């Protein structure tokens, strides 16, 4: 379990904070324990070197924002959510990538965490739109974005190269004006990190 670091935003059960290199040991251990949950949809880093390469791009690339979703009670990392390909200008959009770890699956922690990332993305990062491209058979991922208020916008054949093949994806998106307002009492924002 990682040492508890301050959250950017927190809700009743989880908080989000930026991914750091210090998350490596816990992240890779949880990714290794979660292979059955992730396959064939997701391949998060499971070794120290793979994590350093992954974290380095998320941390250093200004078009990305990487977060870990942590349980408030004890600080255990429940999953991760990245905003990739952030485009400013007239678009103000980013593409989500995310995954729960097996010990947290089915407990509502990623739903709460995604809600916190949406709050942070729309209010603090000033984004207007977030997209999630999901393989049609990934029912858990589709259910997660549907619960968060995303709408299905279309279908992209052969969209991403995953596990040795080009995979079809459904396109889901949410805009800042689609998001229901979150009661201030249920979310606490922090400026430190």
UniProtKB/TrEMBL annotation:
Q: Which residues form the N-acetyltransferase domain?
A: 14-177
The cross-references to PROSITE patterns, in alphabetical order and at most eight, read:
GNAT
Which protein family is named in the record?
Belongs to the acetyltransferase family. RimJ subfamily.
Q: Which molecular-function annotations from GO does this UniProt entry contain?
A: protein-N-terminal-alanine acetyltransferase activity
- Alphabetically list the UniProt keywords: Acyltransferase, Transferase
Protein name, entry field: RimJ/RimL family protein N-acetyltransferase
Q: Name one Pfam family in it.
A: Acetyltransf_3
């Amino acid at each position: 379990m990682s040492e508890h670091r301050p959250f950017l935003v927190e809700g009743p059960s989880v908080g989000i904070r930026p991914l750091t290199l210090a998350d490596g040991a816990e992240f890779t251990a949880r990714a290794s324990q979660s292979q059955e949950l992730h396959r064939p949809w997701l391949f998060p880093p499971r070794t120290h070197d793979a994590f350093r390469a992954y974290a380095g791009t998320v941390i250093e690339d200004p078009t990305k924002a990487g977060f870990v979703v942590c349980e408030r009670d004890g600080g255990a990392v429940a999953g991760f959510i990245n905003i990739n390909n952030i485009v400013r200008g007239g678009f103000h959009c980013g593409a989500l990538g995310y995954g729960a770890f097996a010990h947290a699956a089915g407990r509502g922690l990623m739903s709460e965490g995604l809600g916190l990332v949406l709050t942070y993305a729309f209010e603090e990062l000033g984004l207007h739109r977030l997209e999630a491209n999901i393989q049609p058979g990934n029912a858990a991922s589709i259910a997660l974005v549907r619960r968060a208020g995303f709408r299905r916008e279309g279908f992209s054949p052969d969209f991403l190269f995953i596990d040795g093949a080009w995979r079809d994806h459904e396109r889901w998106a949410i805009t800042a004006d689609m998001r229901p307002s979150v009661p201030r009492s249920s979310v606490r924002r922090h400026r430190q990190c």
